[in-house]
Amino acid sequence: MSRTQAQLVDWNDQRGFGFARLPGGADRVFVHVKSFNPHMPRPKAGDQLELEIVAGRDGRPAAASVDILGQKTGKNPSLSLHLATAAILLILLQIGLMIGVVPMWLASFYVSMGALALIAYSWDKKAAQIGAWRISEARLHLIDFSGGIIGGLLAQHMYRHKMNKPAFQKTTVAIIIVHAILLGLLGSGLIVLPMG
User: Fold this and answer.
1) In the predicted model, what is the mean pLDDT of residues 14-24?
2) With 0-12 CB in 10 A as exposed, 13-18 as middle and 19+ as buried, what is 73?
3) How many CB atoms neighbour CB 128 within 10 A?
4) How far apart are CA 88 and CA 68, in angstroms?
5) Element (H, E) at 114
6) Phi then psi dihedrals of residue 62, to 5 deg
7) Do 36 and 66 contact (CB within 8 A), yes or no?
8) Mean pLDDT value across the chain
């Protein structure tokens, strides 16, 4: 199937879709976030695209196999940064358990909240794609802050969700710092929690 170029003229990042216009044309082509190469950054209005045109809903033109021109494919470095950060926090937690300064109940709490974070991010990502009820960013941050940060980081990586939102990521970094300090203080013995 032949590929053509178009400009993304309208994009709703929350809902994950928009419209592109072909050069010299008045017709708009529907573009869904799932049609983009998965290793591309999040699209934005004004991006120049290369795509295939297929029949979409009701036979209207829709985009498939979309690439953003001028953007290199390949894994986003921030993806591995999220995984690395989650791994570091998990290692700090495990070291604390091994040397006996982190109580088992705290480790269990981190695991439970991490699982909750995975579920919450998964739901929010699916809801964004289908236009259903969303989980607020404040609530996602609250889950992360309340012990779900390891699961939250894994979920952001797995679902490519909230990765390109600078304000969201700044708060995520602040939450990471709080938990790293907490685990560091526990490991150094400056904070002692009841073990039972």
Assistant:
1) 87
2) exposed
3) 21
4) 33
5) helix 104-130
6) -135, 155
7) yes
8) 87
For the chain, the structural domain boundaries read 4-68, 77-188
Residue 67: CB partners within 8 Å, gap ≥ 6? 36, 37, 40, 49, 50, 51, 73
Q: How far apart are CA 89 and CA 87, in angstroms?
A: 6
Q: What angle do CA 42, 48, 50 make, to 5 degrees?
A: 90
Residue 51 in contact with residue 63, Cβ under 8 Å? yes
* CATH of span 4-68: 2.40.50.140
Q: Which amino acid is at 110?
A: Y
pLDDT at 161: 82
Residue 76: CB atoms within 10 A of its CB come to: 17
Residue of 77 and 110 predicted with greater confidence? 110
Residue 172 pLDDT class (50, 70, 90 cuts) = very high
Give me the pLDDT at residue 195, please. 85
Which residue, 24, 33, 31, is CA-closest to 51?
Answer: 31
Query: CA of 163: how far to CAs of 18, 44, 84, in Å?
Result: 19, 14, 15
